[in-house]
């Protein structure tokens, strides 16, 4: 069961249809992540790239983030995220964008306080996203990036950013990064 862990929407069960090619972040990982971000959430501008169900940005909004930009290339994912925003009454604080992650990163003029990156494990999505974020300066000063991957993190995670946290939760490897 996918649910909001804390904040204004605490306990709300989120939609995650069977067959959706999304790996929702488990409550245990969300609790650990948001305990690290406690002092950074309030008033934050959040980017949730590869948003899937929208669970991470919804959790941030529930805990006091100002706005979330939720990007995914799959209409099915955006439909589920939209439904979850409606269930949590957080629709007015979110902007859903149907776009390829690279196209969005290359074209946005926004700068973010928190960036959530939970791309498909196969492929070079995380490597490419981190490179684009660094090249375009999309992270505000003191901003943080949360990454979820499997196995070794891409070299870009350690050469372009400082690793504040690196922890394994089952098959998922979680990184918390800031600019060098």
Please report the number of helical segments: 7
Overall pLDDT score: 90
Query: Cα distance, first to last residue?
Result: 37 Å
* Helical coverage, percent range: 25-40%
CA radius of gyration is 15 Å
Shape: globular
Give the strand order of the largest sheet, numbering strands 1, 2, ... along the chain: 3-2-1-4-5-7-6
Poorly predicted sequence stretches spanning 5 or more consecutive residues: none
Structural class by sheet pairing and helices: alpha/beta
Sheet with the most strands, sense and barrel status = 7 strands, mixed
Q: Please state roughly what percent of the residues sit in beta strands, choosing from under 5%, 5-15%, 15-25%, 25-35%, 35-45% or over 45%.
A: 25-35%
Question: Would you mind describing this structure in some detail?
Answer:
The protein is α/β, with parallel strands linked by helices and 180 residues long. Helices cover 33% and strands 28% of the residues. Strands 3-2-1-4-5-7-6 form a seven-stranded mixed β-sheet, sandwiched between helices. α5 packs parallel to α6 (125-136). The protein is globular and about 40 Å long.
